[in-house]
Amino acid sequence: MRQEIRVNFTGETTLDNGITVGVLVGLNGENVAKSGSTTQVNRAYADFSGKFGLVRVGEANSALVTDCVGDPGNVTSNFGVNSPNESYSNVGFAQSRNQNTGVANVSNSPAGYFSTFGVAPMGSIGTCYGIESKGNKIMYFSPSFGGLTFGVSFTPTGGQRRAGNGLSYGTDVTAPGPGNAGNNILSVGVDYSHDFGGWNLTVGGGGEWAFTQYTPAGGSIGNKPAWYQAGFQAGFGHFAIGASGAYYKDYAHAGYAATTASSGDDGWVVTGGASYTIDAWSFGLQGLYGSYAQDAAKILGVTSAPGVSADRENMWGISLNGAYALGPGISLEAQVAYTTANYGDLSTFGLSAPVPTAVGVDSSKVHSVELDLGTAINF
After folding, report:
1. Which of 73, 141, 262, 302 has the most crowded CB, counting CB atoms within 10 A?
2. Taking the alpha carbons of 61, 66, 68, 69 in that order, is the dihedral positive or negative?
3. Contact, 54 vs 140, CB < 8 A?
4. 8 Å CB contact between 92 and 120
């Protein structure tokens, strides 16, 4: 069982010149009383809006994430297989319980472990994440031009929050590598929505680029992460269909564990889905497929593997989910989902075992079945 508690404090006023000033401070309820937690604040920003659009300053999602158009196959607040809020899948983990296999995992931790293997756990795979998470940024969202809107944001500190009031000094905001999301990140998102009478359409896309990337010692890295995303949804009465996709450049620097990836490896994800809504009931069907390049040397645990190429890691999942609105802002949610991964084969290296056998996992059994039930309560 899991729960997410979010407490948002908001305020808003309109000045005599017509500009509306608003603030939001969102606290992670689970972490407020947790000693040493660095994620007590989920979001914290100020808005200045008017006929010119909206300017936002603070800790918030990037323009790409805010404007991201995914497929409509997830009708819940909690579940789904594309960028889910909660995932109970064990796909993407290497496990060894209370046994001495004599084999360390790819992070050189001792035998007997539960840790990420490959690109990431299944629940962190999706098309609407971007390459950084709520770093301090400045953002601009345009007004609608006949259904066309766009957003731009810039984050000098990358994934670092860098709060003020004595909690951070100076201008050296270089985030150490290799697993961080870089610095000086530009994010752009563009959406278009229109009602054609008998049906409606929403399409969107964008990109996110890190202009600098550093090693743990502060040296510059040539490979810098980037994220490209696009999606659409078409509605016909009670039905909606759509698809989305994302391409990750240098995904080892995009916030993923990427234990089998080198600095320059790429990855991509595509999703498709459909939903049906009638009265208080909503039903969704969603599928996801992702493919990620891997480094043979990282898999084999050696410094280099000249002339040897590794199979790509492929992950896919399917979700049948539904929601019932018990009242305004309150819904009962459920999901049946299947997720799986294929890490390739070591036969290309002259060995007969599947890749994860080297870390205590049989790739023929890397799958999970979820039967989920939950609630979403918003006041």
Report:
1. 73
2. positive
3. yes
4. yes
pLDDT digits (tens, 9 = 90+) for 66-104: 999 999 999 999 999 998 989 999 888 876 555 444 444
Residue 63 corresponds to which amino acid?
Answer: A
The three-class DSSP label of residue 98 is coil
| Length, in residues, of the chain | 379
Strands, E assignment, the chain? 6-14, 20-28, 41-50, 53-59, 93-95, 114-116, 136-141, 148-155, 183-195, 200-212, 226-236, 239-249, 267-278, 281-292, 313-327, 330-342, 367-377
Answer left, alpha or beta for residue 123, where phi above 0 means left and psi between -120 and 50 means alpha.
alpha
How far from 295 is each of 34, 205, 237, CA to CA, in Å?
A: 38, 30, 47
Terminal CA-CA length for the chain: 22
3-state secondary structure of 61: coil
Evaluate if residue 372 carries a pLDDT over 70: yes
Kindly report the pTM of this predicted structure: 0.86
3-state secondary structure of 122: helix
Contact assessment for residue 187 and residue 62, using Cβ atoms and an 8 Å cutoff: yes
Classify 236 as helix, strand or coil: strand
Distance of CA 81 to the CA centre of its chain: 11
Q: Is the dihedral of CA 79, 27, 127, 342 positive or negative?
A: negative
Q: pLDDT (tens digit, 9 = 90+) per residue, 229-243? A: 999 999 999 999 999
Helix (H) or strand (E) holding 297: helix 296-300
CATH says 62-131+143-154+163-377 is which class?
Answer: mainly beta
pLDDT tens string 106-157: 444 444 556 788 888 998 899 998 888 888 899 999 999 999 999 999 998 8
Cβ partners under 8 Å of residue 178, min gap 6:
215, 216, 221, 252, 253, 263
Give residue limits of the domains in the chain.
62-131+143-154+163-377
